[in-house]
Amino acid sequence: RRALFEQSKGTWCNYCGYWTVKYDSILALNRVKASDLKLEQGGYNLAWSQTEVNTRIHFYNTLSFPSAYANGKLAMSDVYNYWEGCPWHVNQNMIDSLYNLKGLFYIQPTFTTNGYHGEISAIVTSAVQFQSAARCKIHVAILQDTIVTPPQGNSNESLFVNTMLKMFPDAGGTYIGNPALGQIDSIQFSF
Q1: What pLDDT does residue 43 have?
Q2: How far apart are CA 70 and CA 60, in angstroms?
Q3: What is the rounded CA–CA span in Å between residue 186 and residue 191?
Q4: What is the pLDDT of residue 124?
Q5: Is pLDDT larger for residue 21 or for residue 186?
Q6: What gap in Å lies between CA 12 and CA 19, rounded to an integer?
Q7: What span, in angstroms and rounded, lies between the C-alpha atoms of 76 and 182?
Q8: Angle CA(5)–CA(20)–CA(31) in degrees, nearest 5?
């Protein structure tokens, strides 16, 4: 029931590091209510998959950087009518309004690792009856909580928090169709 925030940014972006400071600060205070994921374009010798980052950014049809999405929608300000979607607009009121909403699915994830190998599995239960034309997919991403690097690109950032490393099985997700109310699906990935 936590709100999901995703931020699209790039190491080539002069302003992305600046706009991220408030975003990171407010989300760090709300770990019980919100999760965040960074989609970072660019960088040199970094661990994340650019193909999967770009696929996710195109999924949202991102037109400007940085951009923030809250529960899959552009983060809109209730005060400003410019710079819509800017991570700076993510505030306590937005987090509170999105927290504990009824979800479309109940997801029980399990993650295990033994060094360099891991396994992700989840039981996904539909909380609603989907229409027959629904084309539901489960997107699973693994992220790293903190990455420290030499300064990157024009942004000059060297600290990356909650950055997506990989999607499973890939950026296309796992198709589960149009689940019936209460339908249970299981997914599992190894790496």
Answers
A1: 65
A2: 11
A3: 17
A4: 94
A5: 186
A6: 14
A7: 33
A8: 45
Reduce the DSSP state of residue 11 to 3 states and report it.
coil
Q: Which of 171, 162, 174 is nearest to 122 (CA)?
A: 174
Identify each DSSP E strand in 100-156 by its residue range: 105-113, 118-126, 136-138, 140-152
Can you read off the two tokens belonging to residue 44? 């040199």
Distance CA(134)–CA(132), nearest Å, equals 6
Q: What are the DSSP calls for 68-106, one per residue?
A: EEETTEE---SS-SSSTT-GGG--HHHHHHHTTPPPSEE
Three-class DSSP category at 135: coil
Reference 37, options 121, 191, 145, 112; nearest CA is 145
Phi/psi at 100 (5° precision): 65, 25
